[in-house]
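During the reporting period the student researcher (J.K.) took over the structure-prediction task from the postdoctoral fellow and processed the backlog of single-chain submissions. One of the processed entries is reproduced below for the supervisory committee.
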Amino acid sequence: EQRPRLIELAGGEFDFTALTELDETVRVQILQALRPWTVAEGIRDLDSDDAVYILEDLDEDEKAAILQHIPAPERVALQRSLDYPEESAGRRMQTEFIAVPPFWTVGRTIDHMRETDDLPETFYEVFVVDPAYRLIGSVPLDRLLRTKRAVLLTAVKSDQRHIVKASEDQEEVARMFEHYNLVSAPVVDDAGRLVGVMTIDDVVDVIQEEADEDLRAMAGVGSDEELSDTVAYTARGRLPWLVVNLGTAFLAAFIIGLFSATIEKMVALAVLMPIVASMGGNAANQTMTVAVRALATKDISSHNARRVVLREVLVGLVNGSILAVLLGVIAAAWFWNLQLGGVIASALVVNMLAAGLFGILVPLGIHKLKLDPAVASGVFVTMVTDSVGFFAFLGLASLWFGGT
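J.K. obtained the following structure tokens:
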């Protein structure tokens, strides 16, 4: 309750950039408590990308109430960015940039930048455009400063090979920046007109958000969950995947129930069987994490998928064989039963192979269905490793020792 009051007391001294660092829930609460003209005055001092980031989570009526207090040229630019799809380059771009005609000289361009009051806070290149604002090329600032004043921009400009469409997904833009080591890239609309620029600081935020989103999804947590959310909202977001996990747990329990007679005959099986399932689950999570990340960065494609699958299966076989020897010796010494050591060692190899195979195949299959592998892979992989682990161990024990 005191945050909005503090901002109003600070007046023009408060830097609204601080709001971009807050959780969405807290930021929205503050903006809703402030008067619309106070917010309008505050965001006018920000770069357009920061202003859009602050406004985008508000309701349409709340946005309109704030935007009506902003002068028309700035309001139109902000509204245009807000009209682009969420998580698109148009939402992320900065609409402040330097664009000049091709007949200008280097000297005139430098003088223009010195005399202009509304330069972007940070920029890396000057864009050369035609009268319709279609992009012709760009001149990096370092080249501009090294060139004689009388030289025409057309003589020093570079053709733009890396152009971002405003409707392009922000993750694709981040991948392009990473692949080509870019620090900025022009953003154009469907007609090819220059409408903004993406800079490296925006892309770093995108990479962090996408990685955080994948991490949350793999844990069955909503991508928009924050520490400031209410207990009810957090519980509601997590419950569906917990219910699915409950279903997979019942499947594992059903498999165990099939071999109840064997377990009653040899209690040591009940002691050891969680080890097989746990080791398989951990191995599968390792494979799945690598696979999900590789799919996100497009390191896995149809050209190398078969080789990657074979590699993960072989990794599972190697690690499974090493761990099987260790576990078999420990189990045999623990229960003074060499046959039991052989059974659990064999079951572990089987489950580690299954972990490597399904840890890679499940994300690939989900990706093939045009779904996000980070969201659903964990549940299915856990179900497979638990089921295979229990069935292999108890099944082999039942065959070896009898009891079903």
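The committee noted the following: The domain at 231-401 is CATH 1.10.357.20 (Tetracycline Repressor; domain 2).
J.K. will present the remaining backlog at the next meeting.
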